[in-house]
Design brief:
Strands 2-3-1-4 form a four-stranded antiparallel beta sheet, with helices on both faces. It is α+β, with helices and mostly antiparallel strands and 146 residues long. The protein has one domain: 2-Layer Sandwich (Alpha-Beta Plaits). The model has no long low-confidence stretch (mean pLDDT 88). 41% of the residues lie in helices and 20% in strands.
Length: 146
């Protein structure tokens, strides 16, 4: 059995960044569901949280898992579940794109803290401001698939 310790920080938004997840209670319900469902599929979510228009997730990647497959399973199932249970007034969708970055074990606790404090963090900064800051800070370039 292989031993892996690969942490990935995922961030994805609602379609068109519509703030569908408008209440703390709704967000808590969605994050809990995503975590439980992921666990049933063998996906280890270390931390999950977000705000009204996006989600942050720290995942420990398994030996037979790919980033694309994990995102497909998490986003697809959770949007289906949200719509099936009529948790939002309008049809709920996640944006197709997502952001992911590998996390060194030396800063895992900082990433956990950051994810845990999304409610406080987003009282002062929008998701777009946060995204732009990350892109500038780390010098990332958006890759447009063909």
């Amino acid at each position: 059995m292989p031993f892996l310790k690969i942490y990935i920080h995922f961030v994805w938004s609602t379609k068109n960044r519509v703030p569908h997840l408008s209440s703390f209670e709704l967000r808590e319900k969605v994050w809990k569901h995503i975590k439980v469902n992921a666990q049933e599929k063998g996906i280890y979510i270390d931390h999950i949280n977000g705000y009204s228009d996006h989600c942050h997730c720290l995942i420990s990647l398994g030996a037979d898992q790919s980033i694309q497959k994990i995102m497909h399973l998490i986003k697809g199932e959770s949007s289906f579940w949200i719509n099936k249970n009529k948790l939002t007034k309008e049809k709920f969708e996640w944006q197709d794109e997502y952001f992911d970055i590998s996390v060194s074990e030396s800063i895992v606790d900082k990433v956990r803290y950051y994810i845990k404090n999304q409610e406080l963090h987003h009282k002062n900064k929008t998701f777009q401001e946060e995204y732009d800051e990350i892109i500038r800070k780390f010098g990332f370039q958006k890759i447009n698939p063909k």
